[in-house]
Specification:
about 70% helix; mainly alpha; 10 helices
Length: about 180
């Protein structure tokens, strides 16, 4: 049985924010969006105006920031590290951070401080997908084209994708990187 919606109050929104932050690391903008959706749903069910609750949302988000529960730079650093371990490109990571509401200046600074090169990330992606020197079968021209397309769709430059796909061995690829 579904619970009937209750009017959004600062106390309820604070509890919702803390519950959300307990489960997920997030950005200031994303927490604001989560709370806005909660308010919109409650207001739609209760026939209220969601604009009347914007100040309450701002107050809850500000309280979470003051308490140190929200830190966009820390979120960006953790997300970049996680995405790099998965072999994601800088372009893809920048898009993910932008979608989560990380300010561009913070995202760019964290990407610069990351220390993982696009080459290393592309090698990680190729290894995980068994492309280039990590493939287990012989590759004809069509297969190499598909592998290049896979890396390009992942956000890597075509020249980098070609270098990785055309490498005969992992050792040759590592020598080429130096």
């Amino acid at each position: 049985m579904a619970r009937s919606p209750k009017p959004p109050t600062e106390d309820r929104l604070t509890k919702s924010a803390l519950s959300y932050l307990d489960r997920y690391g997030t950005t200031t903008a994303n927490l604001r969006a989560v709370l806005q959706r909660k308010v919109w749903r409650a207001c739609a069910a209760l026939d209220l105006d969601p604009a009347e609750h914007e100040a309450t949302i701002d107050a809850v988000v500000a309280r979470c920031e003051r308490a140190g529960l929200l830190d966009d730079a820390r979120y960006a650093e953790a997300r970049i590290s996680s995405e790099r371990r998965k072999g994601r490109s800088g372009r893809r990571i920048a898009a993910v951070l932008a979608a989560k509401g990380v300010p561009t200046d913070i995202a760019e600074r964290q990407m610069r401080d990351d220390g993982v090169s696009e080459f290393a990330a592309a090698c990680t992606a190729a290894r995980k997908k068994r492309l280039g020197p990590w493939r287990t079968t012989d590759a004809d021209h069509a297969r190499r084209q598909k592998e290049m397309a896979t890396l390009c769709r992942a956000g890597f430059a075509p020249s980098l994708a070609r270098r990785i796909v055309e490498a005969e061995t992992v050792d040759a690829l590592e020598e080429d990187a130096d």
